[in-house]
Predict the 3D structure of the following.
Amino acid sequence: MNKESSRGCFIALEGGEGTGKSTQAALLVDALANRGIEAELTREPGGTPGAEAIRALLLDPPEGGWNARAEALLFAAARSDHVERRIKPALEAGRWVVCDRFVDSSRAYQGGAGGLGDDAIANLHGFGSEGLRPDLTVLIEVSPDKVAERLSERDADGSDAIGGRSAAYHARVAESFAALANEDPAQFVRIDGDASPEAVHMQILAAIEHLIAERQQC
Ligand code: TMP
């Protein structure tokens, strides 16, 4: 088998706060295992010791926080380490990678909601991670009322520096994700996240069925 044909598939799960990505990522990895596909479950920011250290700096920043460009650079630096040390080696070894957030989070949060623009994020990603894209980006979208309900349970003990931003910021994040998905329907699949976790899982499985069928050809 040549190297190209044995590369694993790279799937990113994206969405705003409280959309159920982490639950769905874990369900997906289990479902793939049941089909005989070994997949690594990972997340951003994080996934390597260095990137997890940067995660702590981003979510619990020093006094005064980061300016918008420094924040984008830190996300890009964490991603660079994650791609180089974990994602690429796994894909090259034929394993799948299921990642809870990837560069489209930087596009929606820092580029869209944060106002840096898409070109700035693309430039950072080109330098940091050689522009690596997932084979498929699964965008889970949840109505604002449902998100508020879920976050009041999840963040009862307080939210982090980014999750705790204004409702207007998070509305811009959701709009940015929707615009990215509209612009690139070949890259994104949009999932109705208001449904039960089981129903959302079934939608995601249906959306990646073609990758499972051609699984050695990502
Ligand atoms: P998490 O809580 O989903 O793990 O994500 C941590 C926070 O970081 C969440 O508020 C989204 C934010 N984030 C960005 O702003 N840009 C990024 O590139 C990534 C990966 C996450």
Notes: The mean pLDDT is 93.
